[in-house]
Amino acid sequence: MPGENLSRDEARERAALLSVDGYEVSLDVRSATGEAQGEGPRTFRSVTTIRFRCNEPGASSFADLIAPSVTAVSLNGRDLDPSEVFDGARIALEDLAADNELVVDAQCAYSRTGEGLHRFVDPEDGEVYLYTQYEPADSRRVFANFEQPNLKAPFRFEVRAPEEWTVWSNGAGERVDGVWRFAETKPISTYITCVVAGPYHYVTDSYEREFEDGTRLEIPLGAMCRKGLAPHFDADDVFLITKQGLDFFHDRFDFPYPFGKYDQAFVPEYNLGAMENPGMVTFREEYIFRGKVTQASYEGRANTILHEMAHMWFGDLVTMEWWDDLWLKESFADFMGAFANVGATRFEDAWITFANRRKAWAYRADQLPSTHPVTADIRDLEDAKLNFDGITYAKGASVLKQLVAYVGQDAFLEGARRYFKRHAYGNTRLGDLLSVLEETSGRDMASWARSWLQTAGVNSLTPQVLLSESGTVDELAVVQEAAESHPELRPHRVAVGLYRRTPEGALERYARAEVDVDGPRTVVAELAGAEAPELVLVNDDDLTYCKTRFDETSLATLREHLGALTDPLARALCWSALWNMTRDALLPARDFVGLVLRFAGRESSIGVLQMLHAWANSALVHYVAPDGREACGRLLGEGALRELRDAAPGSEQQLAWARFFASVASGEPELRLLRGLLEGAEKIDGLDVDQELRWAFLEPLAAHGEADEKVLAAELARDDTASGKRHQVRCLAARPSAAVKAQAWAQVVESDALSNALVEATIAGFAQPSQRELVAPYAEKYFAAIERVWDERSIQIGMDVVRGLFPSLRDSRDTLEATDAWLSAHEDAAPALRRLVLEARDDLARALRGQACDAAAASR
Fold it and tell me: Per-residue b/e over 672-706, b at no fewer than 16 CB within 10 Å?
């Protein structure tokens, strides 16, 4: 990683000096098949021609390229010595003219880490598949360029590939004389250019739209995956969501989709969920479901499709100048994903998922020491890589949801329409968006932005209820608090709901008021005189971004009657609030687990149920006091099995409980049942143990020494696919053996032989909650290794290792002190590396506080 960074100041200087007229990029990837030549990395030829202008003739600058070697460099017809101008990451450009032409002929390396041009060999049939992934700055691994978002330009790509392959890029392409040539793009940034190549299974469709002015738009649609996944590929549903999304955004944005075709590729070993390359969106292939999944999985895929589609306008058509304003694309796309899911598809409850799942990500990120304003201070590319986080995505989207409540949906969408028309194919900053929203809403956006976009931290809102002698509400107020580290009290538009039980026992809302909360205490005058509530829900309907707290009466009501709440969004908000209280050491972890065991079986929203399963598991592993873990785990296993048997046969609730049961199974009866289900000796009515569920059952068996290498090899023979290989690697690393752990550690930390996907699988299997003592010796090794790993490996692998192997299971003061010692001794380490370690330390400290809370409650 050293030498590959780019600072914001360097990018600003280069953007002030240069403007780019166009790129011509020629790639030869015929070397992707067959045997590799030589000892070094497998490479491909990349020839790039860049035409650009310099407003200070005679000045110097640089182009970006990360490549094993450069064959030739020509600037304005002058041949330059590659050994003198290329340092492995940059090409020095001296004595620039007013108009310039740079030609770079390089040997670039195929990637095995998902960064640049990734090469994947399918173990099922030996076929080779390629795709690119660049954000924030990995296109320079494929062709020479000016790698920053505000030096946009049109691109022309041509690709030489094996005869039997098809190649795709951002523009429409055709094969002429053995070369794939693609239409020139609109002006776009380097990081959203794309090439996909290989024997992909490809399905086509089309979208047609006639606008009010009589113009017609036809968009060719395509969707692709590996041949091995073709039997599972439900392209019809992908196209359905795509067409619904295009209709939705055309209706609201009043700017026709501007990039011609719309291909969507589901690719192997992908580091992200998806990437918004215009005309050629890429997704992780796990969105193609090999077995039965719940509707939450289909909703999640639809949300991702719509999120990436929103980027065609927010991010691709109009792009941020630098990564400080990453929120201008990611926050908007995250908001629009849920907004369009609710407004255009069958997933009408997507805001419930947003409130329960996406916001949980934001709340965690906003309480870390690395929290930052939505508009962040991004000093360099390493900062940018780490800022694709819960703040930029989910908090930003939550803030936009609050903004819609603040200015009104019509004013918000009209502002977006003006923004697109005013800045099409250009780059913007925060002020450009705020100015159009001020025009359309008449609101002072500067003060709103200062509170919501330019400060960090999350506020807590707690109700205070005073009752009159007659038992009605005398006064109801909302108290706002903030952490000492981030003391900003923000203006919140919130709904406050009052709930009571009906004669039939349902817990339902009988009064509601919307109020602008501002300052430390706000009285909700509209609710004075209402009947005394059993539950007060601040932020009812989820209008704002905050942590919701409860008064004593409300908390007591939830402990006894949470399952009686009839409104699914209100129920999801209460669950989220209770989880935040658990993480904040205000609610003992065993109390939260007890609530899950008591009420989760009544949960109608499958997405919420699966989130509750994840939270209960996290509570057991991290927040339950050590002396209570065994008993709590046994209760979870028994409760999960009870719900599994009680669930409707063949239902998605049954499937969710089956997966959760496997994740918490630890005792001999539970493991015996899993073995029986795998072998067919046991049956649960309606439960289809398909291949994906088989692997889910095998992991706990492997972790408890009940499935050895021979068993796992036999399962791989049954499922000899790329997916099967990842599952097998995870299960192999999960086995309870010192030799197994040593081998897994060496494969990830001491070697770069594994691909990104297998690194991820090995890390996932390595640290099992039942093996705390077995992995304890690796705490010292972790701190000895991480700086070297960060320096020597790609940033993606570095992030995976530093996050995934942090010794969180050695949850003691000793580990906290070891972390502090490393931080003190490495103050000059890369800021991005220190950030990851600080975040892991904060999670550990939070876990220890939670354990202390749980222990104190148990001792009473």
Answer: ebbbebbeeeeebeebebebbbbbbbbbbbbbbeb
**Residue among 394, 383, 272 nearest 330 (CA):** 394
For residues 563 and 831, the answer to whether their CB atoms sit within 8 Å is no
Q: Does residue 432 have a pLDDT over 50?
A: yes
**Among the residues of 214-370, which ranges form H helices?**
235-253, 295-311, 327-344, 350-353, 359-365
What contacts 476, CB < 8 A, 6 or more positions away?
463, 464, 465, 466, 496, 523, 524, 527, 528, 530, 536
Is 164 a known active-site residue?
no
Closest CA to 671 of 708, 697, 634: 697
Q: Pick from 110, 112, 226, 1: which is nearest to 756 by CA?
A: 112
Amino acid occupying residue 256: P
Instruction: Report the distance separating Cα 434 and Cα 443, nearest Å.
Output: 10
- SS3 category, 386: helix
- Give the model's confidence band at 376: pLDDT under 50 very low, under 70 low, under 90 confident, else very high: confident
Give the model confidence (pLDDT) of 512-530 as tens digits.
Answer: 999 999 999 999 999 999 9
pLDDT at 405: 83
Structural contact between residues 210 and 219, judged by C-beta atoms closer than 8 angstroms: no
DSSP 8-state class, residue 319: E
Give yes or no for a contact between 641 and 671, defined as CB atoms under 8 angstroms apart. Answer: no
Give the confidence band of 3 by pLDDT, cuts at 50, 70, 90.
low
Rounded distance between C-alpha atoms, residue 371 and residue 387, angstroms: 10
Amino acid at 769: P
Mean pLDDT score across all residues of the chain: 96
Residue 387 three-state SS: coil
Cα–Cα distance between 516 and 496 in angstroms, integer?
A: 11
β 262-267/280-284 pair status: parallel
Q: Specify the 3-state DSSP secondary structure of 160.
A: strand
**Is pLDDT above 60 for 2?**
no
Q: Following CA atoms 643, 647, 653, 656 in sequence, which dihedral angle do they give, to the nearest 10 degrees?
A: 50
> SS3 of 239, please?
helix
Parallel, antiparallel, or unpaired: how do β-strands 155-160 and 18-28 relate?
Answer: parallel
pTM of the model: 0.95
The tokens for 645 are 């048997």
Annotated catalytic residue within 308, 321, 330, 652: 308
Residue whose token pair is 């070397």: 31
End-to-end alpha carbon distance in the chain: 52
How far is 541 from 573, CA to CA, in rounded Å? 8
Report, in this order, helix, strand and coil percent for the chain, each rounded to 5.
Answer: 45, 20, 30
- What is the spatial distance between Cα 737 and Cα 658, in angstroms, rounded to a whole number? 27
* CA 72 and chain centroid, separation: 39
Give CA–CA dist 831/93, Å, rounded.
Answer: 29
The answer to whether 381 and 148 have CB atoms below 8 angstroms apart is no
Contact 524, 478 (CB under 8 A): yes
